[in-house]
Amino acid sequence: MTDTHEVYTLHRGTQPLLVSVPHVGRELPADQRQRYVERAFAFEDADWHLDQLYGFVQSLGASFIVPRYSRYLIDLNRPQEDAPMYPGVNNTELCPTHFFTGDALYRAGMAPDAHEVRRRVQAYWQPYHDALRGELERIRVAHGHAVLFDGHSIKSELPWLFEGRLPDLNLGTAAGESCAPGLRDALGRVLGAQAQFTHVVDGRFKGGHITRHYGQPGHGVHAVQLEMCWSCYMAEQPPFELDAARVARLAPVLQALVLTMLRWSPHG
Fold it and tell me: What CATH number has the domain spanning 2-263?
């Protein structure tokens, strides 16, 4: 069953897994486009192609939620009170005002004020989170537990946001708080069993708002985030095209992670 909304598309599955890709959107509402610098319309900071890379999850019975609009409108992986995810370093806001390079995203004087931010929360952020919450509860009731997998990707080097080069695959569980230890360990073993990509568990990217907020293992909901470098599957420069050879190397790892989440049970 598919729920098509102005803000998202939710494909409801039959298994205890929901996959979310909150930063794949590459649209801006017509009434907001005049605010942005021309560069914004290339959507260079999108989590490119993840709706395609994770499209296979539907055939396995997982639920899959895909947003329509760009993170430049509002970041679905930030709390609505806009607390920084990683204190002490550069962060992008709930309604970002900078590209990942640190350059201004909006034309002079056109950044959203507090009223506009609140409007965007109600119009775009809240519906996505209502759908996430509702689907997780449906899954939990049907299966006794739910797993939320939050998929992300990013350029491997972005000096304004972090030092050096990221590991290829960054698994985040809010330092072990967003899921049961057994699930964290099982996913870590999948990453450890492959030699194609460097990896880390709960390193620089421990999980954003979605992982931290919805991951409540004591209440039967287990959340994990995977932040992976674009270089694993695509060109890191415009036009940001998929690389078939890289995708072929990555796909078995993603499939193994998803199958592990599908097969895992908090009851052993």
Answer: 3.40.630.40
